[in-house]
Each structure stands twice: as structure tokens, then as C-alpha cells.
Amino acid sequence: MKIRRISALAATVAAGALVLSACTPPGDEGTDGDGGGNAGIDEGTSINIGWNQPFYEYNSNSATGNATANAIVLYLMNSSFNYYDKDLNLVTDESFGTYEKVSDDPLTVTYTINDDVTWSDGTPVDAADMLLTWAATSGHMNTVEAEEDEEGNVTNQDEVDAGVFFNNTSAGLALVEETPEISEDGQSITLVYTKPFADWEVNFGVGVPAHVVASHALDIEDAQEAKDALIAAVNDRDAAALSPISQFWNTGFQFGNALPDDESLYLSSGAYLLEEYVNEQYVTLVANPDYTGDHAPTVERVTIRYNEDPMAQVQALENGEVDVISPQSTADVLASLEALGDGYNIITQDEGTYEHVDVMFDNGGPFDPATYGGDEATALAVRQAFLKLIPRQDIIDRLIVSLNPEAEIRNSYTSIPGSPNYDVVSAVNGMAEQFPGATDLDAATALIEEAGVETPIDVRFLYGASNVRRQQEYQLIAESAGQNGLFNVIDGGDDNWGTLLEDSSGYDASLFGWQSTSTAVSESDANYRTGGLNNFGGYSNAEVDALFDELQVETDTTRQGEILAEVETHLVDDAFGVTIFQFPGVTANNTEVEGIDPISISPTIFWNFWEWSTTATEEASS
């Protein structure tokens, strides 16, 4: 799946240059590093990392929690069956558990969690947790769907509250229609697919703790009794029990302004524990003394400090407030980093994130057919005209080339430049012709005149307000779209833009980035499928849905590329939106920290945290 790179991608963001130093985390409280699997901890060591969007939800599988900002924190906290290494090879972590493809026909996979793996409250991590992941994301437990009006408001809330509604469906797990079977010892679960699924190996894992969800939803204190009740509810498809379970799964792990008093809402099964959370300022994680896996860290504390202003992050690095930064860079940022001189490492490379503009199809705005009495052709003409005026080449020339002289327009919704499918897809999807990088004012004007729509057309434009590069992109887009008086682009910049994406009633077009979480060929499914988790604009095309159905079960790589090309041709023809550029990645750290070696997909710089080391101590970095 793709996740919103909260500016990297999604949710509340702290503004202002003082955030990184506004409050200092605690110094020496917490674990002493003795015992457990973390005997190699260097006591008193800490790393402070500058990031551009705050952690805000523990459940990263929910519709609201799907964001890089959450994923990176949870990667430090919770173990999983596999991860991507430096070369993007998928590596299994057998210190957590194993999985085995038992059969190809039907596709059958058994997952087993080691019996010494526990949540940080001492409760075993087991098949109940995996069963909850399937129940919550397969869609097969749902008895009702949320219905929305043209402004994005849920119109059947009472029905949703009374029924069973988990707010995210995985296209892959939807192919597992029968309830998975749990082994007698409770450590294994077996999934049987109704069809082959090309990306099965990155399709499943442990999400939020089953005993915590059931305990809160069903008012059961004992952890094992809570798990047993959840298993029974799923096996029996007991709507009366599943209704509160789904409600808590959807919203129960959303963080507010402070660390919850209830510690069960942020349990760990991995290398680090969440120790402190200050909303929009920082989170601090401390090494888990009970972790026994292969990824035990040596650094005792990791603090992630938030500021969306890249130059403020550079200043914080220079001042010693942070040790590592990976901001959305500009030429000024790179020049400032290079000017820091000795004592700092700078890594530049392309990231797996790409910038794009999407338009809304179902919010009663200028791109919605309902605005024109259901006239699809008029709405399409307005969408096409607007997208023809996105100055893609100008944005790259002004903001990206100085960081990457080889930067080019990205002309694919689904494939990264340089990947095997990119040339095939971009050659036939029609994006470069339909939405040229240099813009086409004459064509845009003709479309609006032919459609007979009164101008200027108001377009509410959502983006990260404190993100300097996006501020500049917005200005270029607003000026270009305003030519000939065609569009009046209204500044909807907001530091909470990520959480606002779910409600399209407040905006008509958006600018943000998608970051890949895997190399799966079907990961873009959720962006463009009708009702998909990341399909915020209400786009719906039955032919696209059918093509993704085919892609899920297609194992021939040549045909996979052909399917993606067909999908993208529809997206271009329907004027879904446009892609702009691949992110130029810049990571910098002081030389006291070693082991920073970013990869292009989530979790980026965090993927090898167990290889980090530092000579810095908490007293030195406070």
C-alpha cells in the first residue's frame, strides 16, 4: 500500500522554527538497559531525529492512521514477519515468526509467531492478533458501509454505529473469504485465498493488540478472556460483539494532546517502548528491556522532533538540537547543509515519494458532475482544463533541478521512474500529451469556453501550509491556473492537511506526496479503486476496478505492466490528477551518529535502527 508522506505525509504538523527546541524530553528516567534481549544497550546514549510531521495514531491500518508519520514510530516499536533491506530485498525476521506458502492451489499461507514474543504488558503476541488484522481489513465482517452526501458527511451514522464497520479494506485480504483457522497452540493462523494473489508475501501481519481492542470494546479485564471473546466473535460473525470492536479499532488508538493515561493504547512488541509524547513537538522512545529479537538496538533513547520547515531543521542540526534530519529539501537547504562544513554527513538520493495534484470528484465542487446537474462531460472538461495548467516543468525547473540536475517530470501514477514498468506505462498512458509539462493555456481556455462554465472557477486548494516547498508550488500553480481568468485558486494551506484529506467537503484539489511502503505491484490499488482507502476524491471507474482485480492475481510481469498501463490510460482520460516529480532525498547527520543509510521507501532512514550507534549522550544532546 502507499502511505501519505506526511510531509512527508499526513496529519497535524507543528509550525514555526522553535518547535524542535521548545521542550526538552526527560533525561534519565525509564529503563536502565539491563537484562532482556537488550543487554548491548549503550546506557545514556540518545539520538534526536528531526522529522516533518508528528505521530498521531497507533493504528496505522485504519483509514485515518495510514501515514508515514505513524509508520516510522511503529516500526521502532513493533516487530513484524519481514522488512526491506538497503537493496529493497524482502528479508524475514525469524526471531519474530515465520510464514510458509503451504499450497499454490488454492493459495494457502500459514503464519506462526514465536512463543516467546510478547506485548510490553506481558501478553503473548499470537494468532488472535493476526485474526483481528484479517477481520478488520478483509471487509468480510462488515455489515454496513458508510454513506456520504456530496459534502462528504456521513448520512447513515446511526446505522454505522449500530452495525459492524471497520473503516479499511485490504484488496489482498478481501480474497481470503473464509475465516482463517487458528492452530491448537494459538500461535499460528492459516489464510486460504479464493484466487492467487501476486503480493501475498507483503499482505499480512500483526496490527493492534487483539486483547486491548476486545478489552475496551467488550469490557473484559483479563487479557486471555478478551482474546477468546474476540476469536469467538469473529468465528461466529457475532455482529453484536463485532460492532463495538470495529468502533474501537477505527478510533480507539487516535492520540490527542498528551500520552494516554491508558498504557495499553501504545503497547510494544519490538525493540523500543513509547516513553513520552508531546503533541506536535516530539515523541521519545526508550529501548525495551524485554525485547529478545534479532533487532536489539544499541542506542538507549530515540527522540523524534517535529518541524515542517526544512531550514529550521538545518538550524536545529547545526545547534545540536537534533542529530539526524531528512527534510523535504530545496536548493537553499542543501546549500545550508553543505555550508555546515566538517562534522556532518550528507546523503542525496531519489526517494520513493512522488508529488502529485488530485482533484475531487464527489464533493459538490467544480470538478464534480453533480455541480452541473450530473453532466459528466462538463465536469471532465473543467478537470482537464485545470490539470493542463499545472506547471509541472516550471515547478521542477525552479524547485528541484538545483537538487537533482537530472530531474524530469514523472509521467506515471503507479510506477517509479527507472522501474521495469515505468517506460511501458508512461509511453502509452497519454499523460504527457494530455497534460504537458509546459502547460497548455489555449487548450484549457477552449475547454472552458466549450463547456460554457462561468469563470473564474473557484478551486479550494489544500496543501501543507508550513512546508516551504509546497508553499512555492502552490504559488506557481495558483498563478498558472489563474491565467485568462479561468480559475481562482483559493489558498487552503493547513498544517493539519493530512487529517483533512478524509473530508473532501473542505477542498477541491490537493497537493501532497505518496510514499511506497513496499515493492508490491498492486500497492496502488487503494488509491484508485472505488472506495479504496487512499481514494479521497471519490473516483470510481468500473473498468479500473476490474483491471485491479486482474492485477491481484496476475503473476506474469509483462502482463502486470500492461494492466498498469491500461489503468493509467483510464486515469488520464478521466482527469484523475497529475504527477509532478520524484522527491530528491537529502539526509544529514552529525558524525557522532553512525549507521544512517536511508532507503527509498517507508520507513526510510529508520529501516536499520539496530545498526545505529552514537557517542552522544542525553546530557550532551538535551
TrEMBL record:
Leader peptide range in chain numbering: 1-22
InterPro entries given in the database record: Peptide/Ni-bd, SBP_5, SBP_5_dom
Keyword Signal set for record: yes
Keywords: Signal
Stored Gene3D superfamilies: Dipeptide-binding Protein, Domain 3, Periplasmic binding protein-like II
Domain Solute-binding protein family: 100-519
Keyword Signal: yes
Top-level taxon of origin: Bacteria
The protein's name in its UniProt record: ABC transporter family substrate-binding protein
Species annotation: Occultella gossypii
